[in-house]
Structures are given as structure tokens and as C-alpha cells.
């Protein structure tokens, strides 16, 4: 009984939502007659050029405005006159006619004044005033006829039947979707559990069943929710479009999804040349790095020799060249990155640069000191050295620190900046060629 009750509530909610436009139609028409509030001075100044005249959310035509009488205010007045004419079924749409006078043309019907058309309006369209007046008259007549047809009792009844049918179809699709995913879950659970158990046994308990099964179950639940959202979305778009009072809302719902997709598609198409350039640049940089690595590997293995260039400098120099190539690649690619010219992108770039500069000052100092020690040939790995009050053998040398193993088998990590600022005594440098002098 609980399941039946929930389905009944869902059915009733969907059908009432589809009928909401018809039930609230008279209220919407009444509210449409209420004059809008006065716009702010900035809005009036920005919109005195052109504004659309609308009926039931459909744009009929545009009108011009001036600073004293902005286009938005003029368009609202004309929209109200057209709506009033359309709501009065005692007046035939064909009774609308154009009346010529000095400097303007009036579109009037028995008991109704609709719009004035001035020479400036005709100049804006680039056609004579009489032709513009006739074109606007035909648009208004067609809009009035559509307005009345949409609100005819027979049309509303037919559309309510369509809404009811759409509600039934949407409800059936929702129930079928829920059952399909429930059956899919029951079908996949034993099979996936057995396979994951086999992987767990082969990996020696390195793979756990619970996290993997939770991931799969989450993916299934996400697919089910997305499917339900798509069904509800298309149902609302169809049902709301049936009634004139909610047709504009239907278009807005449709635009909520299509506009971002359209923007992303247009952005992707516009970014394709830049992305292709970046891809080609990355490929060139990758093969250039491989060639540079092979070159310095040859120097390290003494297959390539340069006078005055020690083989032990090969990999440190390679790292410098590596960073320079990556930096140049980023510099060349930056203007082609989508959105790189936006203020937000530049702001984030500056913020990251400031954070890196503030947080890496000591790191950069140690890196520079490390390279300085390498190129000065201060010591090598295996040398017996004394750094300030630390004495031992150099066991490892990195860009940031140097590891010294003492006679007590202690591994001491010394920052390169401290080594560069202190005194280093190397007992192994001259011992290789001149021997070691022992003092007793």
C-alpha cells in the first residue's frame, strides 16, 4: 500500500504541474495587465534604443525609444495594448487598420489604439513607413489570432489530454527506469563480486572488495539519477509548452540546458586551432627533450667530450636545459590556452605566481646553491669532507640538500645554502693525485 500511495502521489504531482498553466492562466493574464514599475535611470539610459514587443513570451517586433521615453517603456505599453485587443473576443483581428497622419501612422481597432509608427521607426528598418505599418499590422493580427486559439476551450481540453498522456508516459518511463536499474543491480552484484573476489585472491588481499563494489554501485546510482532527470526534464518541457501561460517557462527550462551546451560547443570549436597548436608544440617539446637527454647521457658516459666540461656536470646541466625547454613551451602555449585572456585566468595565474614566490624562496636558494657547488666541483660523492663542524663521507648529493655519513654511521642532511655560506674542507680532492698527509 505504501508503494501504491507513492506512485499515486507522483502521478498526481506531475499531472497537477502540467495543468498548472491552464488553472493559473486567468491570473497570469490579469497580472500581465498591471503596469510595470518605473525602471532605474541607468536601465532607461541603457535601453532607450530598442526593445521587443511581446505577447505570451513571443517577440513580435522591436521599437525604438528616446531618453525621455525609453524603448522598454514604449514596448511594454504596446504589449499591453496588443494583449488587451487579443483578450477582447468581440473585436475581430481583421478590424485592425492603419491610419495615416502627419509624421506617423496609427494602428487602431474599434475601441483600441495599439501603436504609433513614426518616421524614425521606418528609417531604422530602412523601408517606407506605410510598408512597415502594414507588416506590423499583419504580425499583430496573426499574434491576436494565435492568442485566442491557444485559449479556446476546445484547444485547452485537447492540450490537457496531451498533458495527461504525457504524464502517464513519463510515469511509466520512470517506473520502468527504476525497475531496470534495480534488476541491473541484482544481476551485476553476484558476477562482479565473484570477479573482484578472484582479483583479491590473485593480488594477495591487496585489492579490497568493499571500495570497488561501492564505486560500481555509485556509478549505477548516478546513471539512474541522470536518466530520471532527463525523463523529468523532457516531460516538463513538453507539458509546459502546451499552455500559453507557461510556454515562456518551457523555453527557459530548455535554454537552461541548451545554452550551456551551445556555449561549450562554440567555445570548443573556437579553441580548436589553439588546442591543435598546443598539441603540436607539446609533441615537438617532447622529442626535443628526448634528444637533449640522449646528448647529455652521452656526456655522462664519456662518449661525447667537451674541453673543460666535466662528465659529472651532465645531468645537472640537463635538468637546467629541461626546465628552460618546459618554460619556453609554456610561454609559447600560454596565449593559445582557452580562456587565457580572461580576467579570472590572469588573476589566478598572478595569485599562483605570488604564492610560489613567497613559499619557495628558501627552496630556490638551496637549488641555486646546489648547482653552484656542482659547477665549482666542491666535492663528489665518496669524498671525505668537513662542513662546518660536520665531518664524514658525502653519500648523496641533490639539488636541495647533501647527505653526509659520519664515522658513527649517522646520515646528516645538510642544506646546500648552508654549505655555500659556510666553510668546506675536502680531504679527498688532493689525495687522488698527491696523496694524503697524516699528522701524528
Task: List strands and helices in order, with pairings.
Elements: H1 2-23, H2 25-33, H3 41-46, E1 50-55, E2 58-64, H4 71-87, E3 97-101, E4 104-109, E5 112-118, H5 119-125, H6 129-150, H7 153-202, H8 209-240, H9 247-300, H10 314-333, H11 343-359, H12 361-375, E6 384-387, E7 390-397, E8 401-405, E9 411-415, H13 416-421, E10 424-426
Antiparallel strand pairs: 1-2, 3-4, 4-5, 6-7, 6-10, 7-8, 8-9
Helix pairs in contact: 1-7, 4-6, 7-8, 8-9, 9-10
Notes on the protein architecture:
- Helix content is 63%, strand content 13%.
- With 440 residues, the protein is of the alpha+beta class.
- The strands form three sheets. It has a five-stranded antiparallel β-sheet. A three-stranded antiparallel β-sheet has the order 3-4-5.
- A hairpin with a 2-residue loop joins β3 and β4 (104-109).
- α1 (2-23) packs across α7.
- The chain is elongated and about 130 Å long.
- It starts with a helix and ends in a 14-residue tail after the last strand.
Seen as an oligomer or otherwise, the chain set is single chain
Mean pLDDT: 79
Largest sheet: 5 strands, antiparallel
Strand order of the largest sheet: 9-8-7-6-10
Name the descriptors.
440 residues; alpha+beta; 5-stranded antiparallel sheet; 13 helices; 10 strands; elongated
Short description:
With 440 residues, this protein is of the alpha+beta class. It contains 13 helices and 10 strands.
